[in-house]
Each structure stands twice: as C-alpha cells, then as structure tokens.
Amino acid sequence: MIATLFVHPMEIPAAQAIFWLLPLTFGVALAYRAMRCEDISKVWHETISLFVKILLGMAILAAGFWSVFQIFL
Questions:
Q1: pTM: predicted TM-score of the whole model, two decimal places
Q2: Residue 12 backbone class (left: φ over 0; alpha: ψ -120 to 50; beta: rest)
Q3: Is-contact 23 51, C-beta < 8 A?
Q4: What's phi and psi for 38, nearest 5 deg?
Q5: pLDDT digits (tens, 9 = 90+) for 9-22
Q6: Are the beta carbons of 48 and 30 closer than 8 angstroms?
Q7: Contact 29, 51 (CB under 8 A)
Q8: What are 19-47's pLDDT values in tens digits?
C-alpha cells in the first residue's frame, strides 16, 4: 500500500504545496536551535525568531526570482 506512493505519488495542488513549507521550516528551526542554544529557556523565542527569518528569506528569494522571470521571459 505505501509502496504504491513511490510509484504513483499523490498530486498536491500548488496552492496547498506552499503550506507544507511551514511545518518543515518550523521543524528545521526547532532542531537547529535545540542543538545550538545554550540556555533552554530561550529555545522557543529563538526558534520563532529563526522561523520568521527563514520565511522572510524564502519570500524575498521568491519575489526576486519572480521579478527576474517577469523581466526576462
């Protein structure tokens, strides 16, 4: 049953695919900060901060790529 997902993957519409980035980004930020943070009481604050920074970075990159494609294509 699960093996068929590798042969015939589920199709996710583009509008929904962008929302899969949110839990993935949060998980990466949490894992990174849990390993790097020296004070455990600051983990959640620093995780949220890193999560927002990653999202803003991806949004800026997406806007940059979109503008380049609009100019050259």
A1: 0.77
A2: beta
A3: no
A4: -90, -30
A5: 888 888 888 888 89
A6: no
A7: yes
A8: 888 999 999 999 999 999 889 999 999 99
